[in-house]
Amino acid sequence: MNYGELISDAFRISWRNKFLWFFGFFVAGTGGGSFNVPSSFGGSGEGGPDFGDPNGFPENSLETSWTLGQGLPLGQSGPFQGLPDNFILIAVLVGIVVLLLFLVFVALSLISDGGLAESVAAIQRGEERRFRSTWRAGRSNLWRVLGLKIMLFIISLGLLVAILILPGIMFGAVFLLTESVGWRVAVGIMAGFLVLALMLLVFTPYWVIGKFALRSMVVGRERVLASIGEGYGLFRRNLGRGLLVGLILIGLSIVVTIATLILAVILALVLAIPAVVLFVMQYPTAGIMVAVISALLFVIPLFILSGAIGTFYHSYWTLAYLRLSEPSPRLEPQDPTVG
Question: Domains of the chain: which residue ranges?
């Protein structure tokens, strides 16, 4: 396998098909106001409650503080002091919105996984793909991709439990057999290093197998369980090359992450200068407006860059799968009478 050609082909496909960046964003790995708090505790007097109790508490304070719509509002009692009266309702609504956004993001991630794998493979074969065809391919594979993700997650939990058994037995035995803090700390550190080593040893190949399994299911049209077996078989037949493909991508991701952080810091500093100058010159309203615009100018390029990077990574794995799954060329037997 030519690894340089693999990287350049993944970059070429990502750059020439920028509509894929929308899907790449979801696989990379997404108005103000104040609340009026009443100044009284709900008493009838305009100046607040009648503190007739010598201890400084209103009469029947315990009863009124726990009565909905009567007595102490939520924002002025106990640990909720300073919060608005409708805090619970707002919290529930915010929680529902966050949950819906999370579910939408998960659905788009599943669609993007299937759509990118199918489209990149088709583009590599010389076929034409557009946003609509990529979306259609991802939507048709949504439930299969979800099933694969669930199966891979369950298997990873089983592997994690198996990894933790031996270090857990070691640490538990030392904890029971001795009260020496030194021995417990030493064995605990050894167990931690053992867990880390086993996780790297087990989950690095498993990570590669999962990438191959997704492509086997979408591109190779295998069933969910069969795709996991096919991904394992492809990795086992190409052990050295499969690990090298993963290690190369890890190295690339480290370089790309560092470069992205540097660019983000530089961009943030440049965009922050106008707003800072306006605040220093005592123009707070203009400074706030410029800060909002600067924030948008900062976030939007990062979203676009994240989509491009995610597309490149996904294309890299798809092209690696296509190259490794190609049948090896066989030499034709020579006719002994020739020559």
Answer: 143-237
